[in-house]
Design a protein that fits this description.
The chain has 424 residues and is α/β, with parallel strands linked by helices. Helices cover 44% and strands 17% of the residues. The structure holds nicotinamide-adenine-dinucleotide. Keywords: NAD, Nucleotide-binding, Oxidoreductase.
């Protein structure tokens, strides 16, 4: 099938181009017609605003803010807001599309969006960040809304910024609208279970994949790259289910203990050590990147994008890769990994536990009700397990790797919904 406007594939080592190249492959498997293909690859709405802010020294600085709504076909759009100097419209566009596929793959009724402000929050005071956040929210009052577009934290933002956004939006409406953002502090309507949600989803995906590969969790060994929110919870929950975590790593390096690292202890150490494992003595230190090629059953990249590349993919010995991070595997590495017969639980499936519990936060806010942590975990585990099964079956039916299967599931769902809803 010929496309009128094929998705640009400029640099396959770039995670966003990687995403589009996989979209393209999945679209071909589905035989997606050109019209729908073009609708799905183009963002529905792009907003760029200038935000003049009075800094603490009295000067006025103008910041650029973005919000891209990729799709509202499945429901109101959902996606984080990042504060970073690297934010630009192309990145925001790609991440917005990514959110569309992620929500569709776990079957939650959301479209995809992303936002950001080009700024360096580490060089700003809390007051400056608050003014910037309120100004951004005010300028997006006609974009955001619990039934329209629901922001959440991303790089450089957290519960504090979400509280300001919720308050600024609520003031503009003259009433409390806590369902307008997720990732809020618990007292403002945040959900129990949100903090560990992504790591928990990684654990559920890992166990589901291991069942298919007939790997016994009690005999399995794991290596987890990244010991932040996602990596440390995934490691802890897998250890609790009988797994042996032989290696963890963070920005300070990788730590190996063949007998298994005591994850609870390592988390405690990190918490009392400025957030890093530097100096951890419960394991031997090795070069950070070497964690990827250790002799383990399961490798969990949960640090950053583009770590598994064409250069190191050949040396990976794990039987299963469960992607906690977004875009940890480049498109060029995909082929090598597939040829080696390694199963991959891809990012848009394996790390969707976070957005799933964000969805629960929104549901609870709209119900005016609070669920227990136990109910949140039970329901998110079920969503993650069901999504895994659907993607697995699709991978068997189309005879494609799990990653392409996940895109097929997502694109098929959005395309079918689009056709039912119809256009002009
Ligand atoms: P985090 O900041 O809490 O932790 C990141 C960890 O990675 C830290 O331990 C850091 O030291 C480590 N790290 C950074 N660079 C590294 C390197 N080169 N080698 C080894 N370790 C390195 O971040 P997080 O929230 O855990 O997110 C990790 C990844 O998961 C990101 O790709 C993020 O986009 C993705 N993700 C997070 C969530 C979530 O809910 N937090 C949801 C979906 C996806």
């Amino acid at each position: 099938m010929g496309y009128i406007e094929p998705a640009p594939i400029i640099d396959l080592e770039n995670p966003f181009e990687s995403m589009m190249s996989r979209f393209h492959i999945a679209a071909q498997h589905l035989g997606l017609d050109d019209e729908v293909y073009n609708v799905l690859k183009s963002p529905a709405r792009q907003v760029i605003v200038s935000l003049p802010i009075t800094m603490d020294d009295g000067s006025i600085q103008v910041f650029e803010g973005y919000r891209v709504i990729h799709s509202t076909i499945l429901g109101p759009s959902k996606g984080g807001v990042r504060y970073d100097m690297g934010v630009n419209i192309d990145e925001v566009k790609a991440l917005a599309a990514w959110m569309t596929w992620k929500c569709a793959v776990v079957d939650i009724p959301y479209g995809g969006a992303k936002g950001g402000i080009k700024c360096n929050p580490r060089a700003m005071s809390s007051g400056e960040i608050e003014r910037l956040t309120r100004s951004y929210t005010e300028s997006m009052v006609d974009v955001f809304g619990p039934d329209r577009d629901i922001p959440a934290p991303d790089m450089g933002t957290g519960p504090r910024e979400m509280a300001w956004m919720m308050d600024a939006y609520s003031r503009s409406k003259g009433m409390t609208v806590n369902a307008v953002v997720t990732g809020k502090p618990i007292v403002l309507g945040g959900s129990l279970g949100r903090t560990e949600a992504t790591g928990r989803g990684v654990m559920v995906s890992a166990l589901a994949a291991m069942e298919k590969l007939k790997i016994n969790p009690y005999k399995a060994t794991f290596a987890v790259q990244g010991f932040g929110n996602v990596g440390s919870f995934a490691a802890l929950l897998l250890e609790e289910r009988g797994g042996t975590i032989v290696s963890v790593s963070d920005i300070s390096g990788a730590y190996v203990n063949e007998k298994g690292i005591n994850i609870k202890e390592a988390i405690e150490y990190r918490n009392n050590n400025n957030g890093t494992l530097e100096g951890y003595t419960g394991a031997d230190k090795i070069n950070g990147n070497d964690i990827l090629t250790l002799e383990v059953d399961v490798l969990i990249p949960a640090a950053k994008e583009d770590v598994i590349t064409a250069e190191n993919a050949n040396n990976i010995k794990a039987k299963l890769i469960v992607e906690g991070a977004n875009g940890p595997t480049s498109a060029k590495a995909d082929k090598i990994i597939n040829d080696k017969g390694i199963m991959v639980a891809p990012d848009i499936l394996a790390n969707a536990g976070g957005v799933t519990v964000s969805y629960f936060e929104w549901v609870q806010n709209r119900l005016g009700y609070k669920w227990t942590a136990e109910r949140v975990s039970r329901r998110s585990d079920r969503i993650m397990k069901d999504a895994f099964e659907v993607v697995y079956k699709t991978s068997v039916a189309y005879d494609v790797p799990m990653r392409i299967a996940a895109y097929i599931v997502a694109i098929d769902k959005v395309a079918k919904t689009y056709k039912y809803r119809g256009g002009y």
